[in-house]
Amino acid sequence: YMKEAGYDPQAAVELQELFLKLSEGRQSSFIDGLFATHPPSARRVQENRELVQKVGAGGYRGEDVYERKMAKLRSLQPANDAHDKAMELASKGEMKPALDKINEAIRLLPREAMFYALRGRIYQDQKETEKAAADFEKAVELYPEMFKYRLYNGLNALRLNNLDKARENLTKANETVPTSIAFLRLGDVAVKQNNRDEAIAYYSKAAEAGGDVAKEAKRKLAALTQ
């Protein structure tokens, strides 16, 4: 079938030879999973070698596509390295060098949403809420389906008292991945907008979680229902 479809059957044999080598002395459950339904064997490899000799090697291998994809990935590596270094520096509280590094990443790859999201969080830490807002908005624009960018945007909008924007982004975030912090802050938005029943519903949902979020939600819920 590979030959009729224009592919090189020899490539399949080479892949099976690699699988056979990997299977020798394997310990990883991941490797076990790869071979669960089609365990490699020297006999099967030999049979396929003989089949290739019969039908003939040659055909499409996809090396050109692979090389193009790898070239693209290699070109992105410096930007991703700068992002990773910025993350490392930020985790140590070294925000100024972290900002320098994430700016470098953005210069190299200006349409990567996660770079703007990280810079927004750095700006937040530096109390630069307006700059953070612009970066979170950019991250959402580039990747609107990513719930955490919506979450960051919504939480920051609430800090700026931009209630409609906060509600929109927190709601969108919860549609993808519901989180207790989003429910809690949606409750805060509802309180500010004088929507008591909605606030009670959101706080009740947040109170189902654990930790500090649940404690805050229960306290605010009690204040509304006493």
Automatic annotation (TrEMBL):
TPR repeats: 113-146
UniProt keyword Repeat present: yes
Cited Pfam families: TPR-S, TPR_8
PROSITE patterns tied to this protein: TPR
Keyword Repeat attached: yes
Keywords: Repeat, TPR repeat
Name of this chain's protein: Peptidase M48
